[in-house]
Amino acid sequence: MQGWFLQSPKLLSDKHRDKAAAWQLQLTKPAGSLGRLETLAVELAAMQHKLHPHVQKVDICVFAADQGVCAEGVSAFPQSVTSQMIANFVGGGAAISVLAKSLGANLSVVNLGTVFESVSHASIFDRTIASQSGNIVKQPAMTEEQLQTALMQGKEALTRARKSGCELFIAGEMGIGNTTTTTALLVKLLHLPVTDLVGSGTGLNAKGVAHKVEVIERALARHQQAILPLDILRCLGGFELAALVGSYIAAAQAGIPVLVDGFICTTAALLACRVNPGVEAWLILAHASAEPGHKAAAQALNKVPLLDFQLRLGEASGAALAVPLLRLACDLHNNMATFAEAGVADKA
Ligand SMILES: Cc1cc2ncn([C@H]3O[C@H](COP(=O)(O)O)[C@@H](O)[C@H]3O)c2cc1C
Ligand SMILES: O=C(O)c1cccnc1
To answer: Where is the catalytic site (predicted)?
Structure first.
């Protein structure tokens, strides 16, 4: 029996892509003059199987989990910040809370397991798998069962989003130490040196980064036998990374466009595509994270991020920032006058 995550994603509509591209040619502007706003609207039309796409209903789900590798001292911040930020997400004070409110987007949090106690709230789904993932320098991050549960939590988040009529899905993550797990995972996927991909995360100094490199090297040596994408995820990921992967695959299967956040989310997106290649067509990269590994992950996906604002936060903040661009692309596509309607002479 194949896992649900191997089932084919929905196909984009070539018919609607062609119709939308032809429609763009009729609008009162030189062809191509709105650049990527045009191609975005056309791709969204193909994804939504309609000539006039909409991305008003946006669902943002932040997957949170603690990382066992925090014991190695790989973050500039203490592990307690993961659960404290969960409270901040629903309290309205986090960057993503402010952005989601401003966008009129639905924001929820899935807690997959934190060492410190987390608050309860209607927008927090307590889906604790364990208090934290395994320390990757000593053991696999997850058991096979934990991996399956985390992937499924991503799918369930998507099911909730879909029920509320979501037109655009955004996933985010929170987990102190997860730039370490993500970097290890990306090294395995791309076969690049750790030093090419590693960054300061929440703000390590040079000594801290050197120690992080050493920790990642130890984890990689420990998990040399992991070759297949899901095994790499199980050994070197975290619960939130696995949930991200599950949510991207489920969004593609449900036919919902995805706006992908920074370094951690883009690495999860790459992994989702390695597991199930058809997912790629459903992903739009929102922004270029300042974390060095992001560039390599984006290149491996053969995608160019929409924005470069030097963000290095995570939480889905960079993806939220790009929502107005997608909305404006749709607005222009749907509401500009045609040459015939406006009585403007078309190209001779
Ligand atoms: C207050 C605060 C809020 C955050 N929101 C996202 N992250 C980001 O930083 C973490 C990864 O960086 P590292 O691997 O260096 O720990 C993740 O939790 C990520 O989402 C935050 C980090 C902090 C400190
Ligand atoms: O781009 C990201 O996802 C990122 C970068 C640094 C820290 N946390 C997240």
So the answer is: 315
